[in-house]
């Protein structure tokens, strides 16, 4: 087995050292292939006779006392992550995909001279190895397989990183496969995300929502204020856009009579990337006919609390840094205008002139360059209030001019029935009483088109097909959207590049 060639055992291998080890391993691959008795053997056999898994064997025999012999023979495979050769006895730690490990003991007495010599010559750290043998417990009480037969299942041509040294964030993100091999937290993140998404689907199914799929390539981007990615279809000879939201198609489904509908899929926004934003991200959107922004807030709270329970067995989740965060109970609902007024020390309403808002922004040394009232209100709110929100909080009733697809408030002029859910100080989800009047919707689209003509790259286009659907009649509806990646941030305490398995990097 090769040894690390770097003088510092905790250092990353240099490119020259990496290449030298690869050449050595390629030689072993060639020897394995030359010795194979069939085309299906060699360094990469088509299969190995696995009968058990490492987690299952550990669950069954994990309580063995030292020096115990079970008389049970198993065949299992795993990746070699530690190895020690001591003459007539070799030890290897085999790791399964979930990180569970078991010791393999390869002894002269069990396998013979030729097989033991081949193990020492051919097996490297990182290789996938099949072993068959009796389940025992070593003198030190370590659960082990006393190997009677073994076989390379897949030869690793590049060495593993040092498993005792934490990988850099850059390496973790760019080479997530190494992160998954190396770090328990990385594997836990994948499991948590899978459980959370499964929980979302179960909650929706229990509430009789239907899951559908909508187009990702669209001739008209819409459903959010965001800059799209553009591409070109050779078949149709037309410009297409990667979707920024599934909203306008999900609403078509509601028009068609699918009263409770949702989708979990990918969105793409050609904007900045930071600790809470990614150009490509997983999104949940749901619509409930005859609901409103209050009922959809109740639904959102249940979805997240159910997901927390699926991961942690409780509404209190434990973040990666050990902090406990309580997602239980009924979450607070506060007014955007009222909370801003209280924090700023002056009364701010939908009728407050934009000149006064500009003066307040200047006083606070905020640079806000936008022609509409609502943008000032929202950015001032973020400045004064957002940072103090730790517990899950629904921020209700937004300015009408920043929410062109939302119904006007039933009792407050100048605002819409919209909320944003903040958890840990970042926006996790948004919900609406949907605008279903096609005449007003057209007026809002026309205003958006004017903003686009004035140079706003995030303004929506006038979508005649969507308006035509609305003109066939859409019932009163509550709708919500939530980033799956951000939900995992709230449940795990991690940044977005950790909750996305393979994030986009330069």
From TrEMBL:
Q: Which Gene3D superfamilies does the UniProt entry name for this protein?
A: Bira Bifunctional Protein, Domain 2, Nucleic acid-binding proteins
Protein residues bound to Mg(2+) 1: 420, 427
Any note on cofactor binding?
Binds 3 Mg(2+) ions per subunit.
UniProt KW keywords: Aminoacyl-tRNA synthetase, ATP-binding, Cytoplasm, Ligase, Magnesium, Metal-binding, Nucleotide-binding, Protein biosynthesis
Query: Where does the Aminoacyl-transfer RNA synthetases class-II family profile domain start and stop, copy by copy?
Result: 193-503
First-tier enzyme category under EC: ligase
SUPFAM superfamilies (alphabetical): Class II aaRS and biotin synthetases, Nucleic acid-binding proteins
What EC designation does it have?
Answer: 6.1.1.6
Q: Which GO terms describe its cellular component?
A: cytosol
Molecular function terms, GO-annotated: ATP binding; lysine-tRNA ligase activity; magnesium ion binding; tRNA binding
Binding locations of Mg(2+) 2: 427
Localization annotation: Cytoplasm
Catalytic activity, per the record?
tRNA(Lys) + L-lysine + ATP = L-lysyl-tRNA(Lys) + AMP + diphosphate
Q: How far does the signal peptide extend, from start to end residue? A: none
CDD domains hit by this protein: LysRS_N
Cofactor(s) the protein needs: Mg(2+)
The record's subunit annotation is: Homodimer.
Can you tell me which family this protein belongs to?
Belongs to the class-II aminoacyl-tRNA synthetase family.
The protein in question is named Lysine--tRNA ligase
Query: What is the species of this protein?
Result: Cryobacterium roopkundense
């Amino acid at each position: 087995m090769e040894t690390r060639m770097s003088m510092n055992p905790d250092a990353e291998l240099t490119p020259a050292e990496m290449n030298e080890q690869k050449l050595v391993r390629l030689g072993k691959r060639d020897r394995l292939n030359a010795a194979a008795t069939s085309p299906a053997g060699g360094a990469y056999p088509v299969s190995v006779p696995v009968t058990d898994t490492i987690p299952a064997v550990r669950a069954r025999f994990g309580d063995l006392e030292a020096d115990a012999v079970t008389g049970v023979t198993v065949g299992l495979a795993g990746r070699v992550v530690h190895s020690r050769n001591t003459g007539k006895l070799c030890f290897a730690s085999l790791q399964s995909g979930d990180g569970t490990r078991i010791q393999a003991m390869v002894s002269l007495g069990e396998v013979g001279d030729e097989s033991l010599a081949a193990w020492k010559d051919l097996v490297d750290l990182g290789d996938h190895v099949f072993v068959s043998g009796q389940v025992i417990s070593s003198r030190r009480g370590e659960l082990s397989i006393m190997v009677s037969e073994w076989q390379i299942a897949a030869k690793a041509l590049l060495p593993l990183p040092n498993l005792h040294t934490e990988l850099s964030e850059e390496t973790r993100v760019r080479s997530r496969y190494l992160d998954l091999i190396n770090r328990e937290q990385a594997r836990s993140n994948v499991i948590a995300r899978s459980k959370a998404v499964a929980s979302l689907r179960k909650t929706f199914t229990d509430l009789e929502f239907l899951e559908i799929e909508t187009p990702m390539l669209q001739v008209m981007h819409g459903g959010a204020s965001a800059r799209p990615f553009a591409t070109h279809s050779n078949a149709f000879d037309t410009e297409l856009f990667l979707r920024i939201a599934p909203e306008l198609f999900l609403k078509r489904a509601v028009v068609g009579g699918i009263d409770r509908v949702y989708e979990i899929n990918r969105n793409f926004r050609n904007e900045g990337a930071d600790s809470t934003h990614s150009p490509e991200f997983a999104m949940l959107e749901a619509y409930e006919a005859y609901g409103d922004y209050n009922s959809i807030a109740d639904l959102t709270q249940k979805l997240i609390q159910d997901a927390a329970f699926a991961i942690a067995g409780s509404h209190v989740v434990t973040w990666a840094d050990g902090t406990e965060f309580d997602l239980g109970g009924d979450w607070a609902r506060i007014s955007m205008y009222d909370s801003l007024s209280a924090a700023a020390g002056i009364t701010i309403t939908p009728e407050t002139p934009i000149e006064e808002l500009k003066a307040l922004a200047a006083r606070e040394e905020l640079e806000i360059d936008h022609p509409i009232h609502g943008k000032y209100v929202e950015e001032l709110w973020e400045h004064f209030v957002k940072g103090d929100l730790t517990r899950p909080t629904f921020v209700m009733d937004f300015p009408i001019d920043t929410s062109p697809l939302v119904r006007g408030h039933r009792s407050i002029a100048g605002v819409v029935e919209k909320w944003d859910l903040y958890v840990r100080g970042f926006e996790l989800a948004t919900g609406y009483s949907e605008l279903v009047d096609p005449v007003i919707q057209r007026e809002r689209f026309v205003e958006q088109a004017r903003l686009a003509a004035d140079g706003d790259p995030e303004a929506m286009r006038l979508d005649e097909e969507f308006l035509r659907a609305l003109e066939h009649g859409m019932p009163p509806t509550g709708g919500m959207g939530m980033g799956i990646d951000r939900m995992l941030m709230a449940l795990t305490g991690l940044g977005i590049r950790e909750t996305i398995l393979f994030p986009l990097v330069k």
